Amino acid sequence: MLAVLAGLPFGVPARAAEDIRTITRDGFDLLHHRVAKPTTPMRGFGGTRSDFDGDGVDDVAAMSDPLNYNLADSPTGIVSVRYSSAPQVDYLIGIVPLTEGGCVCFGQALVAGDFDGDRYDDLAIGVPEEVDRGNRAHAGGVWVIPGSRAGLVVDSAIHINQSSPGIPDTAENYDWFGAALAAGDINGDARDDLAIGAYGESVGSKAYAGAVTILFGGSTGLAATGAQHLQQDLAAVPGAAESNDYFGYSLAIGKVDGNRYQDLVIGAPLENNGASWDGTGMVTLMWGGPAGVSSTGATSVTGAAAGPATGDSDVIPWLLGEVLAIGDVNGDGLGEVVAGAPGAQTPHLNGGLVAVFTGRTGGLSAGAVRIITQRTAGVPGDPENDDRFGGSLAIGDVTRDGKADVLIGAPGESIGSQAEAGMVTLLKGSATGLTGTGAQGFDQNHAVVPDTAERGDRFGSSVALLNLDGTGGLDALVGSVGEEVSGDFPGYEAGSLVPFHGVPLPGSPGALTPENTSWSGQTMRTEFTWHMRYGLRIAGPQSGGPLF
Fold it and tell me: What's CA 365's distance to the chain center, in Å?
């Protein structure tokens, strides 16, 4: 069997190629620490999703909390980038002055997209509680770093916030601009665009109503020119802005109707919260077009409207749309919108569910949705309170049958007596849609999966489907952010990422195969930073939703 992640660096990084460097943009500082790591250049084929060095094999960018550090200022998060060919590991560190205070928020959203069309993916990093340098509001921001044959070009990084020229709206306390991100080609110009969620944005007097900003790619990367700003008091957007809707809490971009333009899906998980007893939250689909997001044809479905599809009055889609993804699970050329609701009642409290809206040229419909829980036939796992099934999602063709599969995290799943040990489930696409037939479930007591299931590991807290071995099929990475490893201080978990190889098996529709290896926050340590909860986010097409 091909070794997944062949050529990617393992073990403790080698000596530093250079010391900490400071990149300053608009008064904001980003630290860059590059560590040399010998690699054998690779050449892969097939689709990629986070290929910063352009070799046809995905690279891995993951966020962790800073634990211990040797820095002059206070770190707000670390994003580590491990390359398949570029001979280094890059550490990107958000900082604030010790006198300013702040949060662990650098990298709370991570996406990869080719914003300048040069065939190298670029990395966007959300910092949702960043302090605006003008009015001192904790409003949020985004860093964008272009890719190249040599990896990320940190000296060409740009910084964006709501005080940047041309960016709609203004920076206000707790806008959480950058808490959700999604990349994709909305206007069909062969360059990815970036959607930025600010779910705390006030609309008039309505606090935390939420908003989304779209920046369009171009030959020089993302630009504020022509930026679009969406909120629910606009005529083009379904619903109405209300306090605490959290519109923009989650985002996804992908082809739903099959034309050349990718479409935008927006989650508002607190829509109707406290006002409806048969489901809350809303998912909105807005069509892409040559001018960007279209002003016509938007559709939406609420949790209450989707509820009857469960066929069970005890299953209630609370907080629908906390997590989103788009992919063609039935192979008909139209993309399905997949929405996670980890806080749903199944009837177990916070048992969690996944709603799959059938791809249609007419948009979303409550009459064209399939609800999947751990009680659905064929789905592994034991339904319990606080499983939070659907707390993380990744979608793509693992089995190489032309139909997208969905990897679902249930980070609260109890394994035996070990609460919050966590598990993941792969549901496979089919001609009739996503199905429990042939589903696979993995936890850390599974043969070959490293370590054992322990209380609080939260295996499945983050998931990604990436082309990690260059063979064209998608492989999986699963985060276990509560994982303690040898050398950790008790209660200060290093966290780990566990790889799975996606391989079609002879005589079967294909499967994920676990690898007997993992990366931990311990292996990522340098003389400057120690890592905690490594893998809290993994860069892919979209990022946002709850943090476990």
Answer: 25
Query: What burial class does residue 456 get, using C-beta atoms within 10 Å of its C-beta: 0-12 exposed, 13-18 middle, 19+ buried?
Result: middle
Q: Which of 348, 545, 513, 535 is nearest to 457 (CA)?
A: 535
Decide if 89 is inside a domain: no
Q: Is residue 371 part of a domain?
A: yes
Residue 61 inside a domain? The answer is no
d(CA 176, CA 238) in angstroms, rounded, equals: 22
Domain extent, residue 200, equals 110-543
Domain of 397, CATH number, reads 2.130.10.130
Distance from C-alpha of 249 to C-alpha of 241, rounded to nearest angstrom: 14
How many C-beta atoms surround the C-beta of residue 361 within 10 A? 11
pLDDT by residue (tens digit) across 23-36? Answer: 999 999 999 999 99
DSSP label at residue 335: P
Count of domains observed in the chain:
1
In a domain, 50, yes or no: no
Report the C-alpha gap between 93 and 76 in whole angstroms: 7
Give CA–CA dist 25/143, Å, rounded.
Answer: 9
Per-residue pLDDT tens over the stretch 74-93: 889 999 999 999 999 999 99
Compute the CA torsion angle 19, 22, 23, 28 (nearest 10 deg): 150
pLDDT in tens, 407-442: 999 999 999 999 999 999 999 999 999 999 999 999
Residue 506 CA from chain centroid, whole number: 32
H or E segment and range at residue 306: helix 303-306
